[in-house]
Each structure stands twice: as C-alpha cells, then as structure tokens.
Amino acid sequence: MSAPRSLTVLLASPRGFCAGVDRAIQIVERAIGKYGAPVYVRHEIVHNRHVVERLKALGAVFVEELSECPADRPVVFSAHGVPKSVPAEAKARSMLYLDATCPLVSKVHVEAQRHFDAGREIVLIGHAGHPEVVGTMGQLPEGAVALIETVEDARAFQPRDPGNVAFVTQTTLSVDDTSEIVAALRARFPDIAAPHKEDICYATTNRQEAVKAIAARSEVLLVIGSANSSNSVRLAEVGRRAGARAYLIDDASALDLAWLDGVRTVGVTAGASAPEVLVQGVIDRLAGAFEVSLEEAAAARETVTFKLPRAVA
Questions:
Q1: Could you give the residue numbers annotated as active site?
Q2: pTM (predicted TM-score)
Q3: Which residue, among 243, 274, 196, 289, has the nearest Cα to 14 in the 3D structure?
Q4: Which of 99, 124, 167, 180 has its CA 20 to 30 A from that of 139?
C-alpha cells in the first residue's frame, strides 16, 4: 500500500471567532445560566449553524420576531443589531431583554443618527435583507437611508442635495469591493461625509488580509463558515480573487476530498462566527487522508475584547 500523499496546510491567522461573536454567545449562555431555560433569541445570535444548534441544546429558543416570544421570559437581540422598533416593543410589553449587538455595529448606528441629526442624506453600503442592514436602516425614519450594494448603484444614486451626503457601511463587507464603491461615491460627491474610523470591522479586515496572504500560495482554500454568514462568504470571494479555488463549508463532513486531487497546498480559514473546533475537525479529516504538514500564517494579532451587559456580567 502506498504512503499517503503529502499536503501542506496553511492555517490563516487570525481566523474564527471575533470579540463581538464571542460576547454575543456568552450573553446567551449566561442568560440561560442566570434565568434558566428557555431564553429566547431574536434571529440567529450569530450566523453559524453549529453555534445555533449548541445553544438550542442548552435551552435557547430562536425566533424571527419578538411577537413569537412570551413576555415573561428573557429575550436576547442578535449580534447583528435590531431596528429601534424592537427594543421599543420589548419595553412596551415589559420584557426583560439583553442586547447582544456587536459594539462595532452599534458604532455605525450612532454614526447614522449623527448624520441624520446634522440633516445629511445617508447612504448605507451593504447587502439588502442582511439583518445588520435591516437593523441599521431601522435606526432612522423610513426613507432616511438609501442602500447601495454595487458601484453601479453608487453611480445611479440621486441625492436631493449632492453637497450634503454621508455614508456608512455594513461591518462585514469585502474591503476591496467597498473601497471601489466609496471611490465611486467620492468621485461624484467630493464633500461626502465619511465615518470617523472605518466601519468595516477590524475582524473582517484582518481575516480578509490573512486569506490574501495564504490564498496566493494555495491551490485550494477551505473557508469554514455557514452560507448565511456574510463575512464567511466574503472570505471565499477574497480567496478566489487572490487565485485559489475556494470552497465555503460548514464543517469537515462537507469537505469533498476530490477537490484536493493533485493539490499540494491547501489554505484553511474560518469566518468570524465559526468555532475553532470546526477548524480542528477539518484538519483532522485532512490528516486522515494525507501526510499533513501544518503551517500557521499570521497576518495580525487580535487583542480586542468587549464588556458584557451588566445584567449578565
């Protein structure tokens, strides 16, 4: 019997959980520990099937709307943020609610409100229907925010006053795609008000940079994350743009070893909502089929942490 073929695995760093995801999951876990089950969660707490299933097993009940929650049980709002109408409804029903919105998403909400109060017309760069976009647009009155998804949208946008426009962005976008859209807006509206600091969060940016670093050296890139995770989908796109054949997989069971026929180097990363145990599962699966040589490729070091709400701290 022939020896297993050798395979170099380039492990992107940073990868996996970011501070906002870690905080959101802890809020649900601690709420269950403090108040007992069930604890309701409006929308998936983060976009990862494995995380959601594990929390369900602990006693979390996931719903899409507040109307599905009984008033006498705690409810957690997801990391993506919610429209202002949601906490208002919770207060009206005297519900105990915990807001797990990522602080970097909350920062975008504050910026949008600041621009609105200053009388500016607001453009949000993001993906229609994504809960973060729904939450950000829902901070302000209907029609106050125009959604722009593409460079073409940026070129077609017609503000009431071209000299009084501002933009904010979803936190989990492709850095490269967004810079193209911003450039198109700046070309048309040189005085457009920009965020004080980049809206695309540090974790999204760092994970995309780490993918660029390994994708250039990899024939195949495996991105561990769920299909509804915006930042995970972007990582696969960034990998393809950098020259690798990229596959988005939920876990090791979705890995088709035929993808690696004739391949000598494979890159592995994970979206910001994918737990490290899933990465280890993929490495174990590869190690069962190949003579694996692991190489960690570090693009940045992350030290960010976010405080928990006082109710569960």
A1: 132
A2: 0.94
A3: 274
A4: 180
